[in-house]
Batch of 2 targets.
Target 1
Amino acid sequence: MSAKPVREGLFVTDPETGTASLLGSRCAGCSQVAFPASEFCPYCGSEHTQVMLLPQEGTIELCTVVRKSSPNYRGPTPYGLAVVRLTPDLVIIAKVDTQQVLAPGTAVRCMVQAVGEDDDGNVLLAPCFRPLHLQSEMERIRVAGS
Amino acid sequence: MPVYIAGVGLHRFGRFPNRSLSSLGAHALRAALEDAGLSVASIQALYCGTAYGGVAAGHKALGALGATSIPVINVEAGCASGAAALLLGVLALRAQAYECVAVLGMEKMPKGMIRSTFFEPWQEQAGLAVTPAYFALRAQQLLREESLDVRDLAEVVVKNRGNGALNPYAMFQSSVTAEDVLASPEVCEPLRLWMLCSPNEGAACVILARKPPPTRPKVRVAATALRSHRFGNVLGEHTPLCGTVGRIPPSASELAASEAYERAGLGPQDLDLVECQDTDAARELLACRELGLYRPGECARALREGWFAPRGKLPVNLSGGLLSKGEPLGASALGQVVYLCWQLQGRAPGVSLDRCRVALAHTVGRGANASVTILQAE
Ligand SMILES: [Zn+2]
């Protein structure tokens, strides 16, 4: 049994910090950035795209809370679903580690979360953004406990 | 080249465990033929919209009336499937390929949270395949842009359920209070359960002809437009995972509306009645903006002054909307057309408008697909 991402090429992790970077793609033609990374540009149809690391940190634009599991989802509930702004030009839809609606402007960082197992018993990993204030709180607790 | 509505028929929307999809469709088709005073032999082609109906759904429905060997074309365009079928029928008549065609929409929706094939399996596993959450994010954006609050959403439900209470074809025929709506279970903030329409079953049929019907007030299809999306809006109905900021392209609904207005030579100021996509309460208010029924930033005023109320300056979803009727995907667009035709001919059940000359139907959903149809009484 091992861990694997819900989709290859969705993100890369930093084992040191436990943080993750989502993988996007930039179009060589129109320079638009798409997420997830794609062989073609959804804006202009160009096949000249290059995979790139997206910023780990962003801010909440809009956020709601999902209370019930949906079909095939075996991760924890409730959780947030949000529009997260990663760059001045790029917003993405992302899962957020929260049980309440987060205010616009809340800073979040991309982490990886276990969301159950596949049929072969592999732990499935999916990106999940965590509010920075929550994260620094947890680090403080960790430091205090050690 | 005008295209007229020769007859309309409906199988009411609801849950009918003992009726097959074909029998729902056949019921609407028979009703429309009877309304038109025509036999099935008069129909030269059948266009059938359905999203979940499977292979040859229209053929099976027609078979219940005696298979006549005409061309049958089954169409899928999400929530706009019925409108896509209507577009094909209208185009065929305008091209003078036929004199008379039938356009049918029908559906039996799966129960519970719909496991849409639209999302990929990894999106389901990652917790990203939650349709009401996307509705909720869109609702939050609208509330922010238009300075509204959750109570304004509840009032949309109150209006539509009040209208539905008077429509014998509605699934829910009882009015509700804003308190009831706000007290219903929270689905995804700000949406409460009663702010979302129920997927269900039903069928609607429209007979189109190049000659107007001899015995009924003349209603013609002034325009019908079907558009898909452009990429860039993170909250678009194509449900992407990314989008841009600041340079958002026009939505599929906006594109369909401007095309339909241009083709009809009419504008929002000419409308007497609108049926629009109220999958959730916020979606109705967004649709009204996309259709140009109020200017951006003007929604709060429109609601305060009751523009879209049954006695307002432009009633919206006088049938009760999807919030009262439920949403059988393939049938919902044609259900709107049937209802608007009744209003234009002065024979609508429930609330009947004193003056109704021009009416607009709008749907939008997965794909993305959006349709706008404008009907005009002559
Ligand atoms: Zn491009």
Target 2
Amino acid sequence: MSASTTTHDKSETGGDHHDHHNPPFWKKYLFSTDHKMIGLQYGFTALLFLAFGFFLMMVMRWSIAYPERPIPLLSELPWFQIWLDDEGKVTGELYNMFGAMHGTIMVFLGIVPLAFGAFGNYVTPLQVGAPDMAFPRLNMASYWCYFVGGVLMLISFFLPSGAAKVGWTSYSPLASMTDSNYSNIFWTGQTQWLLGMVFLITSSLLGAVNVLVTIINLRAPGLTWMRLPFFVWAMLVTGFLLLLAFPPLEVAAIMQLMDRVAGTSFYLPTDVLNNGVLMDAAGGGNPLLYQHLFWFLAHPEVYVLILPAFAIVSEIIPNNTRKPLFGYKTMVYSVMVLGFLSFIVWAHHMYMTGVGASVSTFFQTTTVLISVPSVILLTSMLISLWGGSIRFTVPMLFATAFIPMFGIGGLTGLPLAFNLIDLHLHDTYYVIGHFHYVVAPGTIFALFAGIYYWYPKQTGRMMNTFLGHLHFWPSLILMNGIFLPMFIQGMAGFHRRAFDGGKAYEQISSQVFLDGDSLVAKIFHGGEAIQMLDLNIIMSTSAWLLAISQIPFIINFFFSIRFGKKVDSDNPWDATTLEWATPTPPPHGNFAVEPVVYRGPYEYSVPGAESDFSPQNEPDAAGDTAEKEETV
Amino acid sequence: MEIPYEVKARRDTGLWNAKIGIWLFLASEVMLFGGLFSSYIFLRLGVEPGVDNPWPTDVQLVRYGFVNTLVLILSSVFVVFAWLAIKEGNWKKFQAWMAAVIACALLFLVLKGIEYNYKLSHHGMRLIDNSVVEGVVLDKTDRIRFEANTVTLDVTTGSTEFLNWIKKGENPEFQLKGEDGQLKNVGNVASWAKKMRRKTNRIIAASRSVRWKAKRKGHEPDPEALKPITRNYTLVSVEPFLVYADDARLSAYDDKVMNFVDGTKVTGKLLGDSIKFEVHEVDLQMIPTAKQDQALVWKLINDDAVKSGWNHARDEEIKKMEKYYLEDRGESVPDRQMSSRRVNVHGFHESGSDGHESAKSEGGHDKAKEVHGEHADAKQKGHDVGAEVELGSHGEIVIEVPRKQKKFLSNHGPAYGTYYAIYFTMTGLHGLHVIGGIVVLGYFLFFGKALFLKDPEHMANRVEVGGLFWHFVDLVWIFLFPVMYLF
Amino acid sequence: MVDSAEEIEKHKKAYWAVGIALLVFTGITVAVASFNFLDFGEPGVSAMDVAVGLAIATFKSTLVALIFMHLNHEKGLIYKILLFTCYFAFGMVILMVYSLWNPIHAAF
Ligand code: HEM
Ligand SMILES: [Cu+2]
């Protein structure tokens, strides 16, 4: 147990042999090549984008809940008025813009960079016992590409045309011709969106290559494939998904860019009309081509959103149940099968586009098949809880909540796999509810769990538990308050992307959710029937309260840097994996001594062991040398 | 801190880092070009006969593609020799081979440039009945010619489309009638419009917030805020100026007014909107054989010699097909083979002979003939009918097409059809890869010596990685060449 | 691997041979496409021409990959990566074309 005393102070005095003793500020914080610093850069930028995406969503939720009222705060800002109508209300245009950018920012600038960029960068090299990423400078380039992509997206809000408005899916032909009335098509929201995407894709590709090579070639001696923590496995598969799924989107984006700037008609059918006028284009293209290329990326992309969450949760669960992860090997194979199948299910997003019966059948089958490995992963985590003496630390709270929340998201996805059911549910709030359960109380909870869990590694201090609880419980309840009613509305036929939340549709808005004489209506609604539309108000209120309940987290995060409880060792959670064998915080080059691995990742409560956890780098009494020799 | 396995291979994987890295990168490149080839197939198979433009199969400058293939293959060979030279420890030899590689790459780009240029300087026009003429637009008549004197702008868009279309060299000076009725110079229109956009938006915003605040408090808003806000401003030009506008950017126009898509209204006098087009080829594939006689082109060309020459060439083609199918195989001719392909009309018109002479010296024409060499035998002497014909710079017949009869006009650039679109996109992306290769390999050539002296194995690894990329670029071209040029 | 002098010599021969083969096959492709008497299948561009052209291109690119890119003796890991990639790339092409050929109004 050499690592159980803190090396915190030593590394601060620079008492180790590493080069660059005192790099200048810009080198240390801006153009750092240290994977941990880059991970933190990714993390902070992504958190800011998440907050911004959240803000956009709150504006949208106002418009949905109270389409007839002016938007508070924003309608007081003079410069913002041009986006509002004469009465200070959110316009459809603004809603579309915020909706498209909410989706884009959340997916491409928030979750992926936080999950893969930040956690992947920070934790992976530590867990495989590497001094850094395989290509540190490429790693820096990857972050800066991401940054430029993000800046382009932000700039587009301030253009005369506003930011992109045609949804995060950016479907052609609408996306090919939108904003074509501006004289400089280059400086329009949609064009900048495409350019931004090209940068983001490049960033992801560089990041993926880096993570993959690090995992493949920089594993510490003795760290064989089946001794890799599940986190690393999930990152490996995520890396492959990014590497191979993003290029087709790049193709799609480039072709859409050509449609917009060079006047091509990749996605414009012959004699297509724009605003009722025959478009001046050669035609002959096919809008479905865009959808194919887009969804070829975007289905694997949802696994990019969720696998890092699995990765984080499966580190935290064994650590807090003090027992090994259930079915580690099965999980590893499942995640590989998942990655493999995720490339051949994409057209389940295209049932409505007129694909034929046999194509639908094919994709329906593969989609149902892919649910098997997902369920295996989830079930293994669930069973891992069984019989453990669980420590309900704050990360563990988030991790345990992840399981049912992701479960709801995943299981509500199953019906969507079936062509016939999807024809009814496609593009309704049911779908919105489904994938938000996966990403919001699913992935985001896992990311919070990860932040609480690895925080002491970087700062040497724990985050406050009370504030953690104050963050967790309201978030859990409110998340369900937002997304659960969406299923009901969706099944009732509420269409997504409606800026008044469906109010304009008489048939929909007059639907009754609960009768006047039902108990709930009697208590809460004065005996009046509760309509489907009233659910909008519940959801929106939950969303704004959710924003408020993030305040304890923000306070906790910054407060604990200075005032949190100091950790008493490098391994405050008594964990087994290699990142806890580094000094706190890990210096440039990470490990004080090159780690050697002697055992699997989750050896908790090993019978006969002197403590309830056996770190991977702790030598066994005997018999290890031989094994080490053959598995270098 | 040193990262392990940068130069030496790791024992269990047998690989050094950059080797895995480059193969992973190439894997993603495979997906990139895989996506592009998929799109190619999707677009090509998706052509609906009779609705979409047929996929052109005989429009390429095969010669350039062929030579470029050879050039790239040679450069690929040179790269492996450069690598071997490093392995042998011979820096001079390495430099020689690498220089040869880069020379090949540059040659490739030059040829590509010539090819692009040729395409971009030729035009094609689809008429409303789907007959197609190929050739050259003369005197910039693809634009609408307009003499303008006033411009009305909606400043809230911040868009000044018409500025893009003012004839080069014209320098109109605009004045604006102020509130006092005085004309004031506005200076630079674009920045004036930007300023006005900001100002007007501020006014709109202020008035809105006054109004809804009043509404919330339940009293009448300040009448100031209810005053209509001026969005449209009329600029008067000191002197009339010429606008040559692309009709795609106009939502409507007539003798006096042009309306741009951004809402700008330009008033003045229409000078002309017909298109002067020098016809090199007539293509009636989209029109059934029986109706080809009535095609709109013939009304425009109005020269029976050309028409009958064209018909003759088509009939020859059909005869050939009938011989092939009916006589040799005993099947009927499939529909797709019945319609004529594009026919070069050179020399069909009456005064063709002297036009021909004058064209010879211009050069450009010869190439056109070679491209469509397979139709050279279709060139037949026309009958001696026909009036005076105007001839263009290539010595071909010139027609004047009223704009209403044009459906689509473009040069043979990416806009001309999905084939051209994917051709330019794929070869363009491939060209970017070539440029990337030049940069990387050029870096090794000029700046690699220090590393070579310090650690030759590291340098060899680098050259190997660069070489792998270069081979991949070659490999992509091996597929691009037949797919884009031959069929 | 190429470490000794005679191995390098052997490699040089192989590289020239491959280079020449590539040039020759390029010539063949062009000849087949441009001379009528070498035309396979129907006049004009036909499925047969495409098949022949692609077959030659595949052969050429295999030569490049195996010899120039040393895939004839590479480590297992690289093969695995490429195998995955091919699976995804072909999956993309095939399924896209499949859906093109099976629009909703087509018979099952
Ligand atoms: C917890 C907070 C969140 C709330 C309350 C929320 C709410 C919403 C709302 C109201 C819409 C618009 C629905 C419509 O009009 O069609 C939407 C769309 C969307 N959201 Fe979220 N969202 C949240 C988090 C996320 C996260 C974390 C992601 C990350 C992947 C995400 C991804 C999307 C996407 C992709 C769309 C579709 C955008 C489009 O229609 O193009 N959301 N969300
Ligand atoms: Cu999907």
